[in-house]
Design brief:
Blueprint: H1 2-23, H2 27-44, H3 47-63, H4 67-82, H5 89-105, H6 109-126, H7 129-146
Length: 147
């Protein structure tokens, strides 16, 4: 158990350092730290911690314009969340949202629409109005483009 706790602490430290590097504009260093955090997560065996960390790694890829890498991360995070009985709906919504953005950017409006609808439902359950508003706006934009 102590080894798992130390692994979780290491993941938290790596993620915090990554955020510092990111804030300083050193995105390559931030990415390396998040990749290391993912490796530690895999060793620890905590699927929710792994999902959360992979989701943030995906965001780094997304921000750098690496859509394929980002998509792989988001899909793995969603698979982990959906496979866990106690996955917080807000975490799931926060993984669905960037995947919807990727699909929308790639021109796959049907996939984007399904994902935005899922995210909307999850944000409503969580009572996150900003998420509800964004999803509603995105869906309205997709629906008006369809008409």
């Amino acid at each position: 158990m102590k080894q798992c706790d130390e692994g979780r602490e290491a993941v938290q430290a790596l993620r915090a350092l990554s955020e510092v590097e990111r804030g300083l504009g050193r995105n390559d260093e931030a990415l390396k730290l998040y990749e290391e955090a993912v490796a530690v997560c895999r060793a620890v065996g905590d699927p929710l911690l792994l999902a959360h960390t992979i989701r943030h790694l995906g965001q780094l890829h997304h921000d750098a314009g690496r859509a394929e890498e980002a998509e792989r991360c988001y899909l793995e995070a969603l698979e982990l969340y959906r496979g866990h009985v106690n996955a917080p709906p807000l975490d799931v919504a926060n993984a669905v949202r960037p995947l919807a953005i990727l699909q929308e950017d790639a021109g796959d409006t049907e996939a984007a629409r399904r994902l935005w609808e899922e995210a909307l439902d999850l944000y409503e359950v969580c009572g996150v109005q900003a998420g509800v508003d964004e999803c509603s706006e995105r869906l309205a934009g997709l629906n008006s483009a369809r008409a």
